[in-house]
Amino acid sequence: MKDKIEKIVSELSASIQVGELELYDIVQNTPSMILTMENTFEELKATVSEYEFPTRQEEITFFKETKPKAFSKLIYLRKIYYLEVNRPVSNYTTIRTYLEKEHNQINDFCNKNTEFIQYYRSGQNCFDEVYFLRGRHEIDLNLESFYFERDPKFSTNFDFKVAKLLANDMLAAYLNCELSKLKYQEENGYQIDDELPLAKWTDKKTALGEIIYGIHEEKSINAGMIEIKALATIFGRIFKVDLSDIYHIFLEIRSRKTNRTEYLSRLIKALNRRMDEADSR
Questions:
Q1: What is the DSSP-derived secondary structure letter of residue 50?
Q2: What is residue 63's DSSP assignment?
Q3: 3-state helix, strand, coil in the chain (%, to 5)
């Protein structure tokens, strides 16, 4: 049973990582990720509900660290999905107010749970048996959780609160990024309608692969301190193209018999032609 729990958690973590890398469009791609995670949590719930941990410490570790870390991703994805679905298409002031309202809700959560947050973030453990063991009723079970989180066989007094705290950390970072982007657009005279311009890659994926690997090898972004998969994800999101198979794309480029940098060569010729034409005017 222990091996099964570890297998479910491992597969869940792996699917979350893959899903995040392939998250090109929050509104379109997030629902399938949420559904997959909810189904996995249902399986995890069925398994853990019938399991007696060998020691109290193992149970505490699961409900203090393992489960909240994974569950926080589900909370976060659900939140940003509904945030984007309901985002107003209006002026900058309206959008900024909308995003700041979410920030205020995070602050409210922190203010209501100050003592517990200090306890958790400082790494204390003196009350862990009260907070993270099942069947402890010194504190009422948290009722702000999801429906399948309310089963006392799968929940403790505070594991959901930890997950909510971790999700809020991610959400705050997301909101800060969106607000910074909004401020930049406003200060530089962008129109609201220009926020998501049509920019779809219309050449071969191998062509984009040449650019990505060239940039990565040249260490042109973050001085090279970025994974190729992450770099492919960035380009994929910008140009609305699935680059989850970036390693396969590289193998396809490598397997070429002649001119393996076919697209980069075309770019060089095109740019030189453009400059020659400009010189001759």
A1: T
A2: I
A3: 70, 0, 30
- Map tokens 């989180």 to a residue: 149
Quote the pLDDT of residue 24.
62
User: How much is the pLDDT for 269?
Assistant: 94
> Cα 134 vs. chain centroid, distance in angstroms?
29
Contacts of 191-195 spanning 24+ positions with Cβ under 8 A: 192/89, 192/90, 192/91, 192/92, 192/95
Q: Does 122 or 148 have the greater pLDDT score?
A: 122
Are the C-beta atoms of 16 and 73 separated by less than 8 Å? yes
Q: CA 139, CA 13: separation in Å to the nearest integer?
A: 30
Q: What single letter denotes the amino acid at residue 149?
A: E
Helix (H, G, I), strand (E, B) or coil at 170: helix
Eight-class DSSP state of 142: P
Of the candidate ranges 26-40, 61-75, 114-128, 137-151, the one whose mean pLDDT is the lowest: 137-151
Q: 1 pLDDT exceeds 80?
A: no
Please give the single-letter amino acid code of residue 264: L
Looking at residue 140, the DSSP 8-state letter turns out to be P
Classify residue 257 by its DSSP letter. Answer: S
Over residues 162-179, the pLDDT tens digits come to 999 999 998 988 888 888
* Longest CA–CA separation in the chain, Å: 84
- Amino acid (one-letter) located at 76: Y
- Inter-residue contact 56 to 133 (CB < 8 Å): yes
Percent of the chain's residues with pLDDT above 70: 89
Q: Taking the alpha carbons of 15, 20, 23, 27 in that order, is the dihedral positive or negative?
A: positive
CA pseudo-torsion sign 11, 17, 23, 26: positive
> Tokens in use for 54?
């060998």
Closest CA to 110 of 166, 173, 178, 177: 166
Sign of the C-alpha dihedral computed for residues 223, 224, 225 and 228 taken in this order: positive
- Mapped onto helix, strand or coil, the DSSP state of residue 126 is coil
> How many residues does the structure list for the chain?
281
